Structure formats: C-alpha cells, structure tokens
Amino acid sequence: MRYNRRVHKTPRRRLRSASVQLGALTALALTLTACDSDDDDDCAMGPVGGGGAVAMALQNPVSKTAGGEQRGTAAVPERGGFGTHLASCGG
Amino acid sequence: MRREASTPRPGWDATVRAQGLVYIDTELPDGGLMSYWDETACYRLDLDEVLRLEEATEELHRMAVAAARHVVDRRRYAEFGIPEWAADAVARSLREQPPTLYGRFDLWYDGSWPPKLLEYNADTPTALVEAAITQWYWLEDTRAEHDQWNGIHEALVGAWRRIGADLHDPLLHVAWSDEEETGEDHMTAGYLAETAHQAGLLTELIPMREIGWDGRRFRDAADTPVNTCFKLYPWEWMLAEPYGPLALEPGTPTTWIEPAWKLLLSNKALLAVLWELYPGHPYLLPAYLDSPRSMTEYVVKPLLGREGASVRIVTPAEEITNPGIYGDEGWCYQEFRALPSFDGNRLVLGSWVVGDESVGAGLRESTSLITDGYARFLPHYVSTPKGA
User: Fold this and answer.
1) How many CB atoms lie within 10 A of CB B96?
2) Is the pLDDT of residue A1 over 50?
3) Alpha carbon B355 to chain centroid distance?
4) Shortest CB distance from B185 goes to which of A21, A68, A88?
C-alpha cells in the first residue's frame, strides 16, 4: 500500500529529451547533400577538406620512428596511418 | 508493442534530410532506391514495457562489462581474435576506466517477455541520428501529446559535460572514416561533435586519414595535438593499421573514446562468454564459440561482422546466407530466434546506452530474417501522454 501511494504521488518520468537542438547539424547536412549531387571529388573529403594532405602523406609514407619495434611499428607514416579500411564502419 | 499505419508528413523527405538524415536513399540490388526512413507506419509501446526494457538493457550492460572483466582476468583474448601484443593495453583500459560514451544493444523483442540479446554494438554504433533526432522531431510534428523512449540527445550532452569536466584540454577531436560513402558516418560524427559542443567542449571534425604522428603524439591536419579523440572507427581496424600499436602505447597522450576495452563488447564472442557466465539467463540465447553443439537451429555470426554481412542462418529446413567479407577472425554460434514479424516486417529493437544508463530506442525493420543494409528505420511513440 505504501508503495502504491508513493507511485501515485510521483510525477511520471519523462522518457524523451526535453529539447533537441540541431545546431551545426543542419549546415553539415546541407553540405553533404550538396556534395552528394556534385561530381567534384574534393567533396569526398567532406567540408573539412584535407584531400591534398592525405595525398601528400600517401606519397611520403615513412618518415618518423616510433617505439614498440617488437610490434612492427619501427617506422610509421607521418600521416594516414589510420582510416585506410575500405568498408563502412557502421555498427 | 504494436505496429500502426501512419500518415507521412508533407515534405517529410526534405525535412528529415535537413535534420541530418542525408543517407536515407538505400540502393537496391536492381538499381532502384528505397527510403531508409519509413514513416508510413510506426510502433506504439506501452510505458510499462519501456520501463522493463530499460531495466533489461541496464542489466545486460552490467553483465557485458562483467564478461569483459572475465575475459581480461582469464586472458581469453585469442578467442576474441585480439592479438597478444594488444592484450595489456586492453586490460589497462578496462582497469583505468577512461571515458566511455555510448553503445547500442540489438534485441529480439516481440512485445512478450523476455527480450533476447542479439548483439552489443558498443564501439562504433550508428543508426544514432535517426534515433536521437529524426524520430524526436517526428513525434513533435505528429504526436506531441505522447512520449517517446528517446532521451538520447539529452544523455549524450550530459555525458560529454561529465567527460569534459575531467579534460585538461577542452578540445575534442571527432574522427570518422571518409571512406564511408553514404554520409552516415560523417553525419553521426558530426552529430556527436554537436552534442559535445552543446556540452561546452571545443570540437574538431577530422577524417581518420588526416590524423598524423609526429614521433611522440598524434596531431590533426593543422598540427594541433589530438589529446582526446572520439573515433567512429572500430578498434579492430585501428589495430590492423600502422598507427594501431601507437594508439595503445601507454606513453601516447591521446585518450580514445570509445576506449580499447570496448572492443571486447562489440565482438560476437561476447555472446558465448555471456552464456557461459550466465547460463539460462532469460535475456540471453545459447551461444558457443567452438561449434553449434546440440543446437539444430542456429545463426553463425562472424566475430567482427557488421550490418549482417557474412551471417548464416541454419535450420533443418534451410540455410540462409548473407554475403560478406567477414569470418577469418572466427565465428560465434548463437541459437536461432526468428526476428518477430509485424505485418510481415521483421523487427529488431536497438536499445541505446549512454554511460551505463538505458536512454532510448530505435526500431529497424527488414524483409529478411537478417537485419542488413536494406533495413528501414521506423519511428515509435509511447502511448501514455506526456506528464500523465
């Protein structure tokens, strides 16, 4: 009985977010939508760009030495050492 | 829970795209297009069942973390396909408890009790924008008097606020794979960056390929140190790439979100370990790593598979195989439980976790028994009016 009284007196918890602000998401969506209808390959890098930097890194892949040589990391690229997997990373 | 027909909003397509769902066009094998977002129908859930599903989700999360501790304590890394050189870093990550943000359970649930765990995407879960944003606005536009199991946005902002309070450098890099062509990963990363921004953090979106190494630390394209990085990029891919060992080095001053131990949760071997630790648990299906054992109906899942690829369903009557590239890393055999059918559509319930809390759901339908890249996302509402 005490439990039931308490339930009746407690306002029900709201399950959903009180507000959802899109912020910069709309601008990003517009940019990606524009890129999707554009054949310009530069768009593939998204609005932050960087295609040039990646291309340079791939041309000069080995320039820095790092620790952990026993793990096969004696030499690693200056840039581009992540992100080469081709498939989607969606969960 | 039940499926209801619903009248789409005028201009819904442009609306959801402007809200971030730019990846709604699914190309079919015949070259046609199908919309991933579907508001011709929706699901109605009762408050009581949502509260029970919340409890189930949090119990599953606790069990999953306990299973991860078990794997580390017993050094069962090989069963997860984790290289021995990464083991100490994974153990350290679990022990030190660096920040963790989110995860998504995929549950079998037909409205009866109990739900059953199908998998836990705890490293790089997507289907986030549609769950947190698109369906939230759909409810505002169509059923504002009702509630929705969707506190995802608020929870993410709150989690970032807590994470940010412990950071020396308020700059958060949010990295994604620009190899992913639909825009889903880019939008998901952009959305997470936005939630961090709303929590007061400075954010920088960066393709994973633009991360560089200067011999001591990771840097972005502008040579700014990457001290804290949310990466929408699986750990198993990172470990296989040149920077993988560096990312795990104790001396590397980058905090990765999600942390390395999360790769234990997003691995299908977790399903077998859970069954071993909690045999007969009502939320679990029998699962094994060595073989299907005595099961006559089972699903063969690649340990590191994604989006239903390389999954095989075996029953006495037939075998259904989804093509894919996964499986070299090993397999998990899980008892087959046909996805529930609602008006001929196969449903999987995605139950979101932020931190350690259950915070919302996203529902996806498929025509096949395997939820894959041809699934559709349907909004839902909770039938008790707001504030009741």
Assistant:
1) 9
2) no
3) 13
4) A88
